[in-house]
Amino acid sequence: MTIRIDTERLRLRPLAPEDCEAHIQMMLDPAVAATLSPTGGAQSRHDLWRQFASYLGHWDIRGYGWFSVEEKATGAWVGRVGPWMPEGWPGLECGWSIARSHWGQGYAPEAAVGAIKWTFDQFPDLPRIISCIAPANANSQAVAKKIGEQKTAETFELWDMSLDIWAADRAAWLARFG
Ligand SMILES: CC(C)(COP(=O)(O)OP(=O)(O)OC[C@H]1O[C@@H](n2cnc3c(N)ncnc32)[C@H](O)[C@@H]1OP(=O)(O)O)[C@@H](O)C(=O)NCCC(=O)NCCS
Known about the structure:
Layout (H helix, E strand, L loop, with lengths): L4 E2 L3 E5 L5 H8 L2 H4 L11 H18 L4 E5 L5 E8 L8 E6 L8 H16 L5 E6 L4 H9 L3 E9 L2 E9 H8 L1
Antiparallel strand pairs: 1-2, 2-3, 3-4, 4-5, 6-8, 7-8
Helix pairs in contact: 1-3
GO molecular function: acyltransferase activity, transferring groups other than amino-acyl groups
Organism: Hyphococcus luteus
Keywords: Transferase
């Protein structure tokens, strides 16, 4: 299976074993981990290794999953973005996390648009795509707005957080970004 998504500045490909260390380094940053861990702080390398293994397994079980995002100009691994729906999730999500050294360049929205196009293409009957975002996560809300998602009245309880569900309906999204 060769899946590649090219955007203007980025290349997306399925998360792979060789990305493990770069992913752990990104997630050891407390600013990245703030709403992505059960404690609100960085997790141990042990837990992050197991988390990464589950991300690879998600591709095997679901046939889709996180994409590694690479900067075309340098080849640098800058983060993970893409479709994600482990057991018990409230819908097919597009998520995003970018290593802090690469924040603020619009990489998350650029990659998310590529990943959502791919996801809608893979699933012609998918009515909407969601993102689960903590109320305090202003950076992620900014990404959701840029890629045409709107906050719904729905929430998803995860660990001790009540996450807001943001969503984009298929037809409207494809009319704008497809
Ligand atoms: C959310 C995240 C993926 C955004 O990635 P990004 O590539 O920086 O996205 P953007 O460049 O579009 O920036 C989004 C917002 O982040 C803020 N931001 C940008 N650069 C920043 C920086 N260096 N420091 C702090 N905040 C910054 C800005 O408010 C920006 O919105 P604006 O462009 O309207 O001003 C990134 O902040 C991240 O990985 N956060 C930690 C993981 C996370 O929370 N993931 C989402 C879980 S729901």
